[in-house]
Design brief:
- The protein is built from 6 helices and 12 strands.
- By secondary structure, it is α/β, with parallel strands linked by helices.
- The chain has one domain: DHBP synthase.
- The strands form 2 sheets. Strands 4, 5, 6, 7, 8, 11 and 12 form a 7-stranded mixed beta sheet that branches. A 5-stranded mixed beta sheet has the order 1-10-2-3-9.
- A hairpin with a 6-residue loop joins strand 11 and strand 12.
- Helix 1 packs across helix 5.
Length: 191
Amino acid sequence: MTIGSIHSQSVANIFLLAKKHSSPVIFPTDTIYGIGAVLSDIKAQEKIFEIKKRNPNSPFPILVSDIEMVKTIADIDNISESCKKLIYPSWQAQTTFILNAKNNLNDIYKKDRKVAIRLSSSKILSDIIRTVGEPITATSVNISGEKELNSFKNIFDKYMNIVDFYIHGNSVSEQSSIIVDLTSHEPIYIR
């Protein structure tokens, strides 16, 4: 088992070590605690679906460090002007956008050819993603349909025999992100 602090300079290494073991990581996001893995680790993503008892037709949001990383997994060049106003000149904090996925993105991350993406508003988390060199998934730490857990102690007590990699820190919020679908002509607010 590996536990690190979000404030440690080597915290990105936890994601890289977890990838070697195809294991998920529990960590504080810019909203609530999440469970996720690096994008290229499909086996770890499948484990998260099992842990959460989540329908595989409900893909996880993807966290990115910058707009250039968004462009590798989603089409943001062909969205309507009214939708672009929500993204440009800067990404809104704590907002997950539904965008049209690139064709080369693995189907595990798509629903109806769409992908959920959030640019982290946490500098620390953005730096971790940048150091890891690829996006990471992040979904709430809970069984699907149950209330999210947002206390490290409660999370650790519940998952210590299931998950081997943890990052401890303070989550910024008690609420999940806002979700806005930008795949139509006008933005559609989902949550």
